[in-house]
Amino acid sequence: MLNETVVEHTLAAALETGADFAELYVEETKQNQINMVNGNVETAVSGLDYGAGLRLFFGNRTLYAFTNDTTEKSLIALARQTAASAKGSRLYQPMPWTEQCRRTLHPVLFPPDRVEKRKKAERLLAAASAASAYDSRISQTKTSFLDVTKDVLVANTLGVFAQDHRIRSRFSIEAVASSPWEKQSGRLAPGGSVGFELFDTIDVEETAREAARIAVTMLGAGQCPSGKMPVVIDNGFGGVIFHEACGHGLEATAVARNASVFAGKLGQQIASPLVTAIDDGTIRNAWGSAAMDDEGTPTRRNVLIEKGILKSYLIDTMNGRKMGMASTGSARRENYRYAPTSRMTNTFLAEGESTPEEIIGDTEWGLYAKQMGGGSVEPASGAFNFAVLEGYLIRNGKICEPVRGATLIGKGAEVLFQIDRVGNNLKRAQGMCGSISGSIPTDVGQPMIRVQNMTVGGRGN
């Protein structure tokens, strides 16, 4: 992407005022997206983004700058201008680069940027037709296909010179059901680090019908009762609660500032012995995977919690400095405009031994949260508030009538101890995670779990 000599000269200029670390991140991103409403193309957009970000460390102080001009003259000027903002105690020399091997973890069969827009639109039209045909109350459909091709180069003065080629594709369907009094929606959005072969692994028509089913089911649902009760949270996107309420608290971004309830608790029990939580950026073709993180460190499988014991945090280089700990390959950023920090990749709760039938059958009364919606979290305390997109009441060990308007309320650190059943049906789902280094693709996941006592908000009796 850049001549090695240009990179070398840029990093050398960045050290001229005494920075003890300099890093150059170069990125080229091609993105295509088609959006349809009711089977008609609303937008079809393609774009190219290219630029570089330069980061300097002066002890525990960070300076960051970025540019779209990657000529040698411009990069050296940027490096000197950025370095002039601080002064170190001594001059450092860049370490010789070590040959970095490219790991082909995520093979792509059909690069999506080479596929005709017409073929992409055909899949979206099929999904829209299937959702509309599911029920006469489906009043609107929204379908989209997004593909991103990203080439990344990371070089730094500690000897890293690494490159990665990343391709991601994602299909989404939203169905809206309407009555004279209200509207309800269902949405699914599968994706991965794959090409157009994504459509060989998912049935777009079946996915569309499932989104329509959720919308129609919730259209006729009564209001959820409120109070404290057992809550059974299903697999897949149910993992968003752990991701938001607990996962962010395990990122060094918060831990290094002592802004996490999990700070200083390595080796301590922070969850039920049934809970094992993992962040794995190496899962083949997963949505949040990559061969390396955005500091050039190879991604890896990090066991965060093992049988309730806190084993590890997610750590990037700068926060690792502050904590006296090594990077876990967890530095991520949206693009070159952001400095990286510790972030999740594919984060999930590991499988347990219970079957879903056993978990439901052993619950006399409670709420079954089949699909989770959005919510909010206060990172320092882990306090959360999540909407249930599709919910049902459980009576005498059976799933009964659907309910809507349910909200799950609690604190992540407390909910971890309340998990008393863990299923054997692990499933992951795809989402986008926002933080100080921008919006990045992440997988969330879990098997079915039961939280034995949880606060549920609702307007029903």
Number of strands: 24
**What is the molecular shape?**
globular
Specify the structural class: alpha+beta
C-alpha-based Rg, rounded: 24 Å
Largest sheet: 8 strands, mixed
Mean pLDDT across every amino acid position: 96
Low-confidence stretches: none
Relative strand content: 35-45%
Distance between the termini: 62 Å
Helix content: 10-25%
How many helix segments? 10
Structure characterization notes:
The protein is of the alpha+beta class. Helices cover 20% and strands 41% of the residues. The strands form 4 sheets. Strands 1, 2, 3, 4, 5, 6, 7 and 8 form an 8-stranded mixed beta sheet that branches. A hairpin with a 2-residue loop joins strand 2 (40-58) and strand 3. The longest helix has 18 residues, at 117-134. It is globular, with a radius of gyration of 24 Å. The model has no long low-confidence stretch (mean pLDDT 96).
Based on the model shown, name its key terms.
461 residues; alpha+beta; six-stranded mixed beta sheet; 20% helix; globular
Summed up:
With 461 residues, this protein is an alpha+beta fold. It is built from ten helices and 24 strands. The protein is globular and about 70 Å long.
Give the topology.
Elements lengths: L3 H11 L6 E17 L2 E19 L2 E7 L4 H12 L14 E2 L17 H18 L3 E19 L3 E19 L4 E6 L2 E2 L5 H4 L2 H16 L2 E2 L3 E7 L6 H8 L4 H4 L21 E4 L20 E6 L2 E2 L6 H7 L7 E2 L8 E2 L3 E4 L6 H6 L3 E14 L4 E13 L2 E7 L2 E5 H7 E4 L4 E9 L2 E9 L2 E9 L4
Parallel strand pairs: 4-6, 9-19, 10-17, 16-23
Antiparallel strand pairs: 1-2, 1-5, 2-3, 5-6, 6-7, 6-8, 10-24, 11-12, 11-16, 12-13, 14-15, 17-18, 18-19, 18-20, 20-24, 21-24, 22-23
Helix pairs in contact: 1-2, 3-5
